[in-house]
Each structure stands twice: as C-alpha cells, then as structure tokens.
C-alpha cells in the first residue's frame, strides 16, 4: 500500500523551480516526486544530526 499523500501549495523562488525541474527530469521523476525525495532526505539528515548531538 502506498503511503498517504497530502496536497499542499507552496511558493518557491523561480530559479529554484527551474533547477528542480531540470534535475527531476534527469532523474525521470515528476517535480512533485523529486521535491518529496529531496525533503525526505533532508529530514533524515536532520534526524541523524539530532541523534548524534544527543549522545
């Protein structure tokens, strides 16, 4: 079963959107899919950093 998705609306800088479109196409993903992957990766790194700081 696929994870549940929630539709959101965000405003991004034009240059960021253009770069994301290029990279997402290179990765054969939609813009939305790519942004989701990038955000998940970033959040994972933050969690790992916070875990290290707790030690």
How is this structure best described in words?
67% of the residues lie in helices and 0% in strands. The longest helix has 24 residues, at 31-54. The termini are far apart. It has one domain (14-54). The chain is mostly helical. The chain is built from two helices and no strands. It has helices at residues 14-26, 31-54.
Write a brief structural summary.
The protein has 55 residues and is mainly alpha-helical.
Structural domains: how many = 1
For the secondary structure, the number of strands is 0
Going by helix content, strand content and strand pairing, the class is mainly alpha
User: Averaging pLDDT over every residue, what do you get?
Assistant: 95
Unreliable stretches (pLDDT < 50, length at least 5) are none
- Gross morphology is extended
The fraction of residues in strands falls at under 5%
End-to-end gap: 35 Å
Radius of gyration: 14 Å
Question: What order do the SSEs take from the amino end to the carboxyl end, as H and E?
Answer: HH
Main β sheet profile: none
Count the helices. How many? 2
Fraction of helical residues = 55-70%
